[in-house]
Design a protein that fits this description.
This protein is of the alpha+beta class. It has 7 helices and 29 strands. Helix 1 packs across helix 3, helix 2 crosses helix 3 and helix 3 crosses helix 4.
């Protein structure tokens, strides 16, 4: 270990750190090393403490700098036979090599993460609302993509591709047309407004968002789309509120959030919207902000019982359901609801329901016909998704169109003549996706 390393890592910790460097999840590491997820988390805590870091990205970069692991390139592979031939019979253990084939966009993401980490160490203080960039906020490279569309997903169909493959964007529906705004692409932060017409299966472009952000959400209220906060390209968590009017294809700026937020859950309510939990630039929080359209003003509601970010939410029958999330150490399967009527009465508006079968983060939620549909997520199982029967407090599963993890996508329910369909758009599955996948939740038959 190089000079300045506080404490030597064990062989098992080096082995685990090498897998972390590939972008593997805790569940994947546990499977590969034949240990439990809790053991993986314990090893990670020890690794972070020994290296003096707080994230997987920092641990990976410091391990590379100190020679604990080596990211193998195609040039390394070509030179390997000669290096082995010249090697002495006895030598000190070599760093663990990580085979890591990167595309140009992925190399850019890793370099960006490295620059931000170095900058945070050099600067005396970060600006208010600045975020620690790790794989919870920026998608970092993994080995060659393994997630593929499956053929068994009989109720899923494929639509026209997005103009540019994108993840971590905001998505909302107005008049059965889907709008995606901002997000991350292979080229970096995006300010694009993309418009998808499910009936015609075609994409068009709208006016770009004034501020390019990722890890933001959107809520459609009275025909306009509200996009609060988000993480910008300077790694600053923003408090802005930008609003898109589809009728005029124009953006405007309204009253900012009371505090910066990204990676929150968001849902429309009568006359406004709720911004629930999220990341404030320093920690995951449980605050709930309510925005009133008529007064252009924010107020604070009763907070989440369990502070967290990267949850997902939608509204049904006067209740906002908040599902899953992450608090820095735990991926939750929680299902909680915020009762708008109880909040108006000054009572505790939060109720706890039966949790999902597995914890999820980076997933998306849409409500349709009394059912919550949960698609995607990092954590738990990637080979099935879940749906919640609100009236009966029962969860069940349904098939996935992906054979691997699918995260940071958009999900919307759209009603058409033939029934209700979910539209799962874009996201990250070892690479940015531009796919549109439609799931028919119900069918309507018209009799003469």
């Amino acid at each position: 270990m190089s000079e300045g390393a506080p404490e030597q890592l064990s062989e098992r910790e080096l082995e685990l750190l090498a897998l972390v460097a590939t972008g593997a999840t805790n569940q994947q590491i546990a499977r590969d090393l034949s240990i439990s997820v809790n053991t993986v988390k314990a090893h990670l805590r020890n690794i972070f403490a020994k290296l003096g870091v707080e994230s997987r990205t920092e641990a990976t970069l410091i391990a590379i700098q100190q020679g604990l692991i080596h990211v193998a390139s195609s040039e390394d592979d070509a030179a390997a036979p000669e290096a082995v031939a010249d090697a002495p019979a006895a030598r000190t253990p070599t760093p663990i090599q990580v085979p890591w084939t990167l595309r140009a966009g992925q190399r850019l993401a890793l370099v960006l993460a490295f620059v931000l980490i170095v900058a945070s160490a050099v600067w005396p203080a970060a600006p208010a609302g600045s975020a620690t960039i790790d794989s919870r906020f920026v998608d970092l490279p993994r080995p060659e993509a393994v997630a593929q569309e499956t053929t068994e997903a009989s109720r899923w169909s494929t639509g026209a591709q997005m103009p540019i493959a994108t993840g971590r964007f905001a998505q909302a529906v107005v008049n059965d047309v889907i709008y995606t705004m901002g997000g991350l692409t292979e080229q970096g932060w995006s300010a694009d407004t993309n418009i998808y017409d499910p009936e015609g299966d075609r994409w068009t472009r709208g006016a770009p968002k004034p501020t390019a952000v990722a890890n933001a959400g959107a809520a459609a209220v009275d025909g306009r789309i509200y996009v609060p906060g988000g993480l910008d390209a300077a790694s600053v968590v923003r408090d802005i509120l930008e609003v898109y009017d589809p009728a005029t294809d124009a953006w405007s700026t309204l009253a900012p959030l009371p505090a910066p937020r990204c990676a929150y859950a968001i849902a429309p309510i009568e006359g406004g919207l709720l911004v629930i939990g999220g990341w404030d630039g320093a920690r995951y929080v449980g605050t709930v902000y309510r925005y009133d359209v008529a007064t252009d003003a924010w107020s604070e509601e009763a907070p989440l019982h369990t502070p967290r970010g990267h949850a997902a939410a939608d509204v049904w029958d006067g209740k906002v359901f908040v599902v899953g999330g992450y608090d820095g150490s735990t991926e939750y399967g929680l299902c909680e609801s915020f009762d708008i009527a109880l909040a108006r009465e000054g009572a505790d508006p939060w109720r706890t329901h039966l949790p999902m079968r597995v914890g999820r983060t980076g997933h998306a939620v849409a409500a349709a016909e009394g059912i919550l549909y949960v698609v995607g997520g990092d954590g738990g199982r990637a080979d099935f998704y879940e749906r919640y029967d609100i009236a009966n407090d029962v969860w069940s599963t349904f098939d996935s169109p992906q054979s691997g993890p699918w995260q940071h996508l958009g999900l919307s329910a759209v009603t058409a003549r033939g029934g209700v369909s979910l539209y799962a758009i874009g996201g990250w599955a070892d690479r940015y996706l531009g796919s549109v996948r439609a799931y028919q939740t119900s069918f309507r038959v018209f009799l003469p």
